[in-house]
Automatic annotation (TrEMBL):
Residues 1227-1254 form a coiled coil. SUPFAM superfamilies: L domain-like (SSF52058), P-loop containing nucleoside triphosphate hydrolases (SSF52540), Toll/Interleukin receptor TIR domain (SSF52200). Keywords: Coiled coil, NAD, Plant defense. Transmembrane segments: none annotated. It comes from Rubus argutus. This is TIR domain-containing protein. PANTHER family: DISEASE RESISTANCE PROTEIN (TIR-NBS-LRR CLASS)-RELATED, LEUCINE-RICH REPEAT-CONTAINING PROTEIN. GO terms for molecular function: ADP binding. Residues 22-191, 248-415 form the TIR domain. InterPro entries: Apaf_helical, At4g27190-like_LRR, Disease_R_plants, Leu-rich_rpt, LRR_dom_sf, NB-ARC, P-loop_NTPase, TIR_dom.
Amino acid sequence: MALFSQRASASLLSAESLAPKLKYDMFLSFSGKDTRRGIVSSLYHELLDRKFKPFMDSKELEAGTEISSHLLTAIQESKSAIVFLSPNYASSTWCLEELANIVQRLEARNILVLPVFYNVDPSDVRHQIRTFAEAFTRHEQRFSQDDGIEKVKRWRAALTKVANLSGLESNKYESDRELVQDILQLVHSKLTRQAIDRILWFLVYFPFPSLFSQLLFRLCFLFAGFHVFNGLDLVATSLPAAEPASQWKHDVFLSFTGEDTQEGLISHLYHQLHNTRGITTFKDDGQLKKWTDISIKLLNAIEESRFAIVVLTPNYASSTWCLDVLTKVFQFMKDKNRILPLFYNVDPSDVRNQKGSFELAFTKHENKSSQDPQKVKQWNLGLKKVSNLIVWDSKNYESETKLVEHILEVVCSKVQKAEKSETSIGYFEAFEPTRHSVDKIMEMLQHDEVAIVGVCGMGGVGKTTMVKYVGAQAPKIGIFDHVIMAVVSRSPDLRKIQGTLADMLGLKLHEETEIERARRLHERLMRGRILIILDDIWKIVDLSSIGIPGHKELKSGKSKLLITSRSGIVCHSMGCQATIHLNVLSEKKSWNLFAKEARQSFDKSTNNFYDIVWQVVRACAGLPIALIIVARALRDRDLTKDLAEWNEAVRRLTAYHSPDLDYEEILFECINLSYDFLRSDDAKSCFYLCCLFPHEDLGIEDLLRYGIGKGLFQDSNIQNARAKVRLGVKYLKDSGLLMDTELDECVRMHGIMRNMVMFVASYEDVLSLQNTDFSKIPETYFRYESALRVLNLSFTNISLLPVSFSLLTKLETLNLDYCDKIIDISILGNLKKLKILSMRQFPLEELPKEIGNLTNLRMLDLSGSYNISAFPLKLMSKLYQLEELYMQCNFGDGKSEGVVGEEKANVGSVEETGRKELNILELRISDAKCLPKYVEFNPNWINFDIYISRYRSARASTLEHGFLHHHSRVLTLDTTINSLPDWFINVVVEETEKLEYIECKGLNNILVEYGHGRLVELKYLAVTGRHENLEELMNTITWVPKEPVFESLEELHLREVDCLKELCVGKLPPGSLCNLKILVVTSCMKLKSLFTWDVAQCLLQLEDLSITQCRSLERVIEASKETLNTKIVFPELKNLILFNLPQLTWFYSSGSATIECLALEHLHVQDCPQFSTSTSDFHSWNQVRVNDLRHLRTNKDEMSDVTSGLKQENQESLAPEDTVQSSSPNARQLVEVLREIQSQRDELEAKFLQERAALEAKFQKVVSTYIQKAI
């Protein structure tokens, strides 16, 4: 005590006098009838042997000792409790009273508790069923008085509390001995952690008086096996505070050397990312000093960032700071797709091989006596790794502006994909309080006797979020193969619900009546393991009217139903065998959730600010959604700088609270506050638009078109307005006011908000009659609607527009999509203010000349209007403000002369679309001859999708279904590039990012196309169908490339190319195909080998390789004599699929050479009878999953060709769906039996291959051990 001050000594004495004297290390609670002579006795003696001090009643107390004295004292004097929950545990009132006292100490946070579920299921304990239910029935009869009833309630609560703790289950162990060993290990770990916490508490109150004593303490800790950071960090981690912030605090981490880029590129890039695009970016603004250790701030920033942009410059390696940062980036970001290198004024090979300035820098590092050689090796390895991840090379861009634009495009795309993936299950990951409820749902879904599970609770407590989370997790752990979900809502639309569920199963419902649609859906749901989720049920719904099987059918099959409702009565009436009730959060959990979402650390050191935060939290009344949207609204408000806004939040949230809590009123005010606190006017505009249609899923394009019609975004062209909408929607999702949907580019409001947002919306100038039964609109219908600015008549059966339509002189947006009965729209010529006109699948053969009067028109959408066969040249020439034109029509298809008036389409059709205002064009032309040879000036098309072919491809049919406008640069051809006009090559081909060839007779060498089209921007290439002269995709002998080719290409798809014999003849220049990640080859019947060893050397970034239905393929890689026994390496290959390859014998030549696919995760081999290579032959560092069909489903976007091949194979063997449906009942039943047999066969084959792979791995390990011993 001499080292401490008198005040410290006094405090210590005071603390010691108040603290309980802990005599025992652990208290053993158990039922003697079940465990005394078995596992408990064994554990007790093992604990004694390891010098622990356990308490066990048989050793310490005489029989009959009153429980209220010695036994309860022993509980108070124990550091921990091990509770053996066995079948007869609840029969003993002694055990239950012990447990109640243990839980009392647990809630006071001064005891550690480890439950051991011994010969019982945790759910039996948690829900008090089976033997526990029988025991409590007896207790309730025995203790029927008031005091007794309260005692029994306390016992029940204690059991539930302990059963929800993380523990051990005896049924997962082969013997009691193994279980005892795990208990010992866990107890040792927990008590050690407890001891450290006590030491940390000691340090908080009694800091070291000298540096010497601090160093001495560190040495003691190090010898004990613990690592100690500086005192401040250590103390900070021990203080009770809010739980850590959500994982991603930054979207992007910028690594750079200020000496090269601080004032130029980095400043420009940071501004564009952070300020313009709203991508949260970390950039260290401090002065980076050489030879300074990397700071904790920087380490945290790396760990909290989704992606890292590493800017490699000539002086990068001179900075040890930068090299340390790079090492940490690779350490924290295991997924290399998160690391985005930019080679700025430096050659990637110099970085890879440490040449030039990098060589000089490393020479200096190696010559420094103070430099750790091991660290220098790590730096070297980091640079080699990053040099193989080439994303941007500054020498490939005309200017720095172009470079930054491309960086923005790539980063925004990656962040959006990441956010969609992370938020697809809502806000669940942000907080833990419903975790135990999820466990209950998972248990019930796996229970054989339970077919329907309900989740109930008031609006805003997280029901939808939780069932989405369950839906995301269930397939991962193998409970279900498919998860489908539909929102029922207060007014159920059965057709919409049926369609949603069917779409998620890939089932098309063509039937007209709801009964027939229900029958089809019912048949599909009875096949396979499917989790059906019905969200937001307000009243009893007849499941059979939708097509969902009833309780008995679900029970007999493999599917289950999960529903959510605000009413427990509804859940009961719907036949739920188990219902989970969700309540509002406790104050502590509310605080933790608020702190996470606000991304701020709140503690008592903030003095009066701490109380302000507490007032805001309490005002949200424990509603998760209220806490989230308010926390995010205040996320960027610093307590010291923006105190007035925090006080305003407190005032508004507490002003209208009544003594009786009205949760809807609270949530309403929270939404209102969040809306008012939005700092982006564009975000407010987007939210305003969503309020107009609160019950619909709205796409980005819908919001854009409605916004322009409402007069928003007036100062922007459509392209800029679209960017504002995207940024506004991102802001709203970040604020918690909008959620993603299952559909791309769509958002929706949270269900509880839908009935509360009318305070924002004004409906006087917006009208939607979409999907109504209108076949005829009364002539006077629009007489009193002259104020309308937005009108949607899509999916109606109207044939004529009424005379009163001409009175809509203020109308700016009009949707007439899929009105296939319409015969006359000439009256539209009176709508002079119209800016947006959408008429997808327009049924007439030509547009009326009156459309030319719409001189303010800025967007015309005629997607899928294949009856229009002539380009309306004269009409288009009058639409001089047109910015976006979507015309997927059949120009030049031979049905007409392509004449409009007296002018031919092949003279000026596309030329007329070349005016300066037009910047987005989607056009379908059947013949390249429709393109003019010369144009007066080059068009300014920013994005385009131009389809020049008489054939339809898989891509085309996909785009046409729903007509999604992806706003990229896409070109489809059935001719070679050299047959296209020069202006078209300059404007379109050179800028193309996605290119597809369909049955192109003149195509014989894709390298010639690369040269003619200068395809340096190309990222996606597909060659589809019969190409008569294409025997080699690439031939470097007939066309010799001087530089690397296809450097930007990321995907290559070859489909049904009948004549193709080789992928490449000759050697490709080094650096070719250096970014190719996906290679898919399907139904190329003459292909005997895919590529040579030389080509394989180029594919260092290949991640997915799929080869299906190539009947002649014998080898994947063909070796020459020189490379016959040379090792082949695919460092990034993760997924390999080989399907229906009857001649395939070896992956690489004769099979004697080594194949290294170190990153391989999934191997799918099916119908390859001669292929004998096993997982061990690929030398992966990962545990390779074999024939995992779930993996194929989760990667359906990248592996669409594979899954379509599998479907085609199954359909050929079992019969097409249409044929099945038209067959007799007996035939349909037989097909169902065959499908079930096929499904079982696939499952058995998958299990067999997995077991074989496991045995091979064990055999390899045994052989390796034997060889090592022999050596």
